[in-house]
Amino acid sequence: MKRSVFVNQGVILQEVAGQYFLFNTLDGHFGGLNELGMTIWKAIIDSKSIESIIALIATDYDISINEIEDDVLSFIEDLKERGFIYYEEGVG
Questions:
Q1: Tens-place pLDDT, residues 11-50
Q2: In the beta sheet, which residues pair with residue 28?
Q3: CA 76, CA 44: separation in Å to the nearest integer?
Q4: Which in 23, 26, 85, 86 has the greatest CB count within 10 A?
Q5: 39-67: b or e for each residue (b if 16 or more CB lie within 10 Å)?
Q6: CA separation for the pair 15, 13 (Å, rounded)
Q7: 18: three-class secondary structure by DSSP
Q8: Above pLDDT 90, what percent of the chain?
């Protein structure tokens, strides 16, 4: 079963002096994104599943899925806890 990831309403991405920040206009949460975080964020914007995001990162960074999976899942869970995203279980 795949988990699709979506950006919550009211969340914006802002670039300031070459750095990227997420801001949730509904609850005031904000956070910065590094290069890997931006890669994941772009995949979320492209409506990727969590599983396909992990595969994308493994390919882009030439790392095995086993090596990167926990870090990506942790980052996505952090985004969810901070109200930037949500995900849904689906078939596929």
A1: 999 999 989 999 999 999 999 999 999 999 999 998 789 9
A2: none
A3: 10
A4: 85
A5: bbbebbeeebbbbebbbbbbeeeeeeeee
A6: 7
A7: coil
A8: 84
- Give the pLDDT of residue 1: 62
Average pLDDT value for the chain? 91
**Could you give the CA distance from residue 12 to residue 2 in angstroms, rounded to a whole number?**
25
Q: Which two tokens stand for residue 44?
A: 């979320």
The highest-level CATH class for domain 2-90 is: alpha beta
Q: Considering the entire predicted model, what is its pTM?
A: 0.86
Any idea which residue has 């279980």 for tokens? 89
DSSP 57-92: HHHHTT--HHHHHHHHHHHHHHHHHTTSEEEEEE--
Question: In 3D, which of 18, 12, 52, 58 has the Cα closest to residue 34?
Answer: 18
Which residues sit opposite 31 in a β-bridge? 22
Bridge partners, residue 13, by sequence: 22
